[in-house]
UniProtKB/TrEMBL annotation:
Keywords: 4Fe-4S, Iron, Iron-sulfur, Isoprene biosynthesis, Metal-binding, Oxidoreductase. It is an enzyme of class 1 (oxidoreductase). Belongs to the IspH family. The keyword Signal does not apply. InterPro entries: LytB/IspH. The active site is at 128 (proton donor). It comes from Lentzea flava. Catalyzes the conversion of 1-hydroxy-2-methyl-2-(E)-butenyl 4-diphosphate (HMBPP) into a mixture of isopentenyl diphosphate (IPP) and dimethylallyl diphosphate (DMAPP). Acts in the terminal step of the DOXP/MEP pathway for isoprenoid precursor biosynthesis. Dimethylallyl diphosphate binds at residues 43, 76, 126, 224-226, 269. Its EC number is 1.17.7.4. Binds 1 [4Fe-4S] cluster per subunit. This is 4-hydroxy-3-methylbut-2-enyl diphosphate reductase.
Length: 314
């Protein structure tokens, strides 16, 4: 058989990432450098480096931003405490939180007001989890591992709901939900799916092509939850090997030995230029035939944050 590449579609940028990156680009155009960004705007090394070169300054905490300066909040969302701190420092803020993350924040607020115990399925330390939990810290408990699911306690088993980080593995999240429902049979599901359409779609595409792949290469950064999940999904669904890379130059040629079919995809925070570079690299090593595996067509787009829209020159 000839060497070939199976190219997943959809892959790469989702609507929330596209919106967040454009927010920083437009802010730089509109207000000039520097524009401060709290945390990485999205979890991708190339995007952060490119925006840094254009004048964005990435900081870990709001108190690193000079008083009165402009700061953009990342796509992963922030807690009310961060908004309060920004106000105390007289910072001009643009909130680039993904609307699908905002939806989960609103669910947390709503169910906390109704005095539910909220079991938040997600990864400890992830920025999105910190932002969501910060909306209702007295009501939210994080459930990351199977051990967490076995130990978590609630006040009233009839008033429990689970929510989730938007970038998790769909299958592994449902494993955790089943564990929790064994303990709390009356636990409610979210009003609508919390795992975002883009995360789910990219996992479905990988599931479809993985059984045919000797190797799957996922373009994405190590701190990108949805990119890391794609590697796991590939291995769980039949790929013989799978690796996460930021750039084509990171491919170890030993990975290609004896390989006839390479699957290629990218996380939701990855610009397609990086995938095109990988395809060129693979072509130079004999993988010239590319077949796109399409499992969904995404047409979702989000408007820019209102703070930016009102200031843009008409």
């Amino acid at each position: 058989m000839p060497k070939r590449v199976l190219l997943a579609k959809p892959r790469g940028y989702c609507a929330g990432v596209d919106r967040a990156v454009e927010t920083v680009e437009r802010a730089l155009e509109q207000y000039g450098a520097p524009v401060y960004v709290r945390k990485e705007i999205v979890h991708n090394k190339y995007v952060v480096e490119t925006l840094s070169d254009r004048g964005a300054i990435f900081v870990n905490e709001t108190d690193e931003v000079p008083e009165g300066a402009l700061v953009v909040f990342s796509a992963h969302g922030v807690s009310p405490a961060v908004h309060e701190e920004a106000a105390q420092r007289s910072l001009r803020t643009i909130d680039a939180t993904c609307p699908l993350v905002t939806k989960v924040h609103k669910e947390a607020v709503r169910f906390a007001k109704e005095d539910y115990d909220i079991l938040l399925i997600g990864h400890e330390g992830h920025e999105e989890v910190e932002g969501t939990a910060g909306e209702a810290p007295d009501h939210v408990q994080l459930v990351d591992t199977a051990e967490d699911a076995a130990k978590v306690e609630v006040r009233d088993p009839s008033k429990v709901i689970w929510l989730s980080q938007t970038t998790l593995s769909v299958d592994e999240t449902m494993v955790r939900v089943r564990q929790l429902k064994e303990r709390f049979p009356e636990m409610q599901d979210p009003p609508s799916d919390d795992i975002c359409y883009a995360t789910s779609n990219r996992q479905t595409a990988v599931k479809t092509m993985a059984p045919s792949c000797d190797l799957v290469l996922v373009v994405g950064s190590k701190n990108s939850s949805n990119s890391v999940r794609l590697v796991e999904v590939a291995l769980q669904n039949g790929a013989k090997a799978a690796y996460l890379i930021d750039y084509a130059k990171e491919v170890d040629l030993a990975w290609l030995e004896g390989v006839e079919t390479v699957g290629v995809t990218s996380g939701a925070s990855v610009p397609d230029i990086l995938v095109m570079e990988l395809l060129k690299f693979l072509e130079s090593h004999g993988f010239g035939e590319v077949e796109e595996i399409t499992t969904a067509n995404e047409k979702i787009a989000f408007a820019l944050p209102r703070e930016l829209r009102k200031d843009l020159v008409r």
